[in-house]
Amino acid sequence: MKPLQLEDEHGRPQAIRISERVHWIGALDPNLRTFDIILKTANGTSYNAYILRGSDGVAIIDTVKEGFAADFFARLESVADYAEIKVIVLNHLEPDHTGALPELIKRAPQAQLFISQKAQSMLKGLLKKEELSFRPVLTGDSVSLGDRTLQFLHTPYLHWPDTQCTYSPEEAVLFSGDVFGCHFCDNRLFNDQVGDFRFSFEYYYAHIMRPFKEYVLRALELIEPLALQLIAPSHGPVLRDRPQHYIQRYRQLSTPALHSELSLNQKTLLIFYISSYGNTKRMAEAIYQGAIQIEDVRVSLYDLEGGEVSPFVDLIEEADGMILGTPTINGDAVKPIWDLLSSLTVVNLKNKLGGVFGSYGWTGEGVRLVEDRLRGLKLRVPIPGLRVKLIPTDDEIVECQAFGLELAQELMGLRAARSVDMADLP
Ligand code: FEO
User: Fold this and answer.
1) What is the mean pLDDT of each run of 10 residues along the chain (426 residues)?
2) Where are the domains of the chain?
3) pTM over 0.85
4) Which of 64, 159, 326, 393 is the most exposed place for a label (fewest CB within 10 A)?
5) What is the pLDDT of residue 423?
6) 235 within ligand 1 shell (Cβ under 6 A)
7) For residues 420 and 425, what is the distance between their CA atoms, to the nearest angstrom?
8) Is 234 in the pocket of ligand 1 (CB under 6 A)?
9) Whether residue 183 has its Cβ less than 6 Å from ligand 1
10) pLDDT at residue number 130
């Protein structure tokens, strides 16, 4: 497929029509290789912005990153005058979508800003202006442009707390912000014309949306009933061919798979360990033996040395609890444990049950450090970590079994509340 004419015969950027009254007025950034420090982009990205024309004025939906403002304004000017702008919608305030906003406000001071309820403090932080006129909106709110309307959908955390989607029912276009987007740059613009971007779509979901699956599912409840001609995201291809396909894919990716494997009341507890001389392994096996005493707890025991991190992250995402075993070497937990923990930022761990154990030779700081990390990741760690000096004795093995049993009881809500005597704490 040939590239679209993103510039006119004089080389000036021009808008691209994507539906009867909607034009793309965004910018391409083919040279970007890393986005937001962590995301790789093999061929760059796009900052998609749109303009909707109604009989009573026009609306701008999102802007672009600051360095690309010239393209944005040139494309805007190719289809509208600034005096016509009645509405500016900001679906998301991250700077890649608001970089041109201060200048746009200067050029169209009459326009009313529409942002989500949760974006209000962010907008003040972004523009650093005391006097700001904007309208916070929620699902059910809308704004009229005469014969065209924009309806707002409250879709927080996709990708920041402020994010929302905006829908034009007359155009059957969803301006989805980061949702359904990807970092993929292609001047053919439409999903049925560009190169194969499936990997980029999945990668983007995995890094941006995956930690917020519950919020994705809530957003889909709002999006799925919409009549759609196309989805206009803020990055990557405009999804005009089978837009429902991408909605279905989001539902698949966000729906827990483990539910179908478990009986009604079952909960899952994962035990991961790494062991230098077999001592932490012995502890792990004893903890496992203790945990499996509790009915309806599906316990799994894994040696980190024998597995890749990525599938373990998948398991942890859907598990109810996780116990980690680490030796202490040079005053720290060992690298495979930290590698696993650092990979968990892509999943939601809030309120999962956590526990830590390990054998040590000298000082045993590793267990405490991992405990702190689990709490930092918002797991519940109700029982202090269990440490054994070198080889566990028979009594210490019994202690490990009790540790596993107690954590499994906690998982099922069967553990008796204990009062902690502060004098007993080390
Ligand atoms: Fe594309 Fe979250 O900004």
Assistant:
1) 86 97 98 91 97 98 98 98 98 96 96 96 82 91 98 97 98 98 97 97 96 96 98 98 98 87 89 97 98 97 95 95 97 96 94 97 95 97 97 97 98 75 48
2) 16-254, 260-412
3) yes
4) 393
5) 52
6) yes
7) 8
8) yes
9) no
10) 67
Into which CATH architecture does domain 260-412 fall?
Answer: 3-Layer(aba) Sandwich (3.40)
Ligand 1 center–CA 3 separation, angstroms: 25
- The per-residue pLDDT for 189 is 97
Tell me whether the CATH fold assigned to 16-254 matches the one assigned to 260-412.
no
Q: Whose CA is closest to atom 3 on ligand 1? A: 94
Nearest to 242 by CA among 232, 251, 233, 231: 231
Distance 337 CA to ligand 1 centre (A): 31
Topology at the third CATH level for domain 16-254 = Metallo-beta-lactamase; Chain A (3.60.15)
* Residue 4: other Cβ atoms inside 10 A: 16
**Other CB atoms closer than 10 Å to residue 122's CB: what's the count?**
19
Distance CA 290, CA 403 (A): 7
- Looking from the CA of residue 159, the nearest atom of ligand 1 is 2
Does the Cβ of 62 fall within 6 Å of ligand 1?
Answer: no
Query: Are the beta carbons of 353 and 382 closer than 8 angstroms?
Result: yes
